[in-house]
Amino acid sequence: MGDRLRCNCRHGFLVIGYLLAHLHNKSLVSQLTQSHNAELNRIKELANHNEVRLESHFKAIATEILDENQRRLGNNNETQLNLWLKPLSEQLAGLNKNIADSRTNAATQKADVEHYLKLLLERTQTLGSEAAALTRALRDCGKVQGDWGEQLLESILQNSGLRKDYEYRTQHTTKATDGKLLRPDVEILCPDGKVIIIDSKTSLTAYTRYIAASTEDERNSAAKENALSIKQHIDELAAKHYERHVAQALDYVLMFIPNEGSYILALQTDKQLADYAFRKGIVLINPTNLMLTLRLIYNLWQSERQNKNIEEVARQSALLYDKFVTYIETFQTVGRNLDNAQQSYTRALRQLHEGPGNIVRRLENLKVLGITPTKQIPNELIEEAENQPRIEP
Asked: What are φ and ψ of residue 174, in 5° steps?
């Protein structure tokens, strides 16, 4: 019983101690919890404060970085944009300048064209008036017709390649057997010494009427008159007998008709006109045929000059060959003379130092006798002279 009681008491005390310890721990836990909560609250406030500060600081840094990046990006963009836009700006400036220059040039050219067109119109009107006056003069004045034909003939000659006063001559005076002076328009000089006489005859009056005729009868009448005019020129030229009075002249004289139309119309109208002229020693020729004839003569002169050049080359080559042979002979003579001179030199040199009593030894003996020369005989000659046999006394 006592043991149970003691055991119960001990158990009670343990329970009471436990309860007291529990109550004490609970109070201590409560205090710790309150302290912990207060510290947590303080930490939270501090964290919140730091968070606000960090947020503000980060915002400021981010804003500064963003502003700096924007500034740099703006500068880079501006620089890059300038690099891109500068060539374009220069090209646009050049294009504007070219457009302005083109407008200025166009205006200037337009003014020049208008000026030249005005001058051309005035010149055309002037040429029309001059052509009309020339047509009237050629139609009505035989002297003007003749001068025109001679000028055309001279122009053809100048363009033929022939040289005036060398391969042809104009208005060369020749005295006939009866004392009358003859002056053909042109004398063509051939390589073989022959002379071709050319005389210009112009027939335009009837031909211009043929061109202006409005009826067939008028054209036929004008065509017959044109052929008759040329036939009269044939008779006049044949009567001068140039082939008899000009030295080395061919038997036929060329009658130059400067107007192609008149020439063709006359041959078409009178089929026998060319034969008629030929029987009188006259050959009718128009500008086209004359140019061909002069070209043929020019080629003959070219061949003549080439042949003369070939002959001259052959002559010069022969002279050069002979000159070379003479040079070889002279050169050989010089060689022989050099050989003779060498032989004479050798003989003369031997006479100085060879043989008993040679000159070099005797001269050296004079030095022994007391002479004092200022120059010395070459040692090689002295040695050769000493090696020669001596004359016994």
From this structure: -125, 140
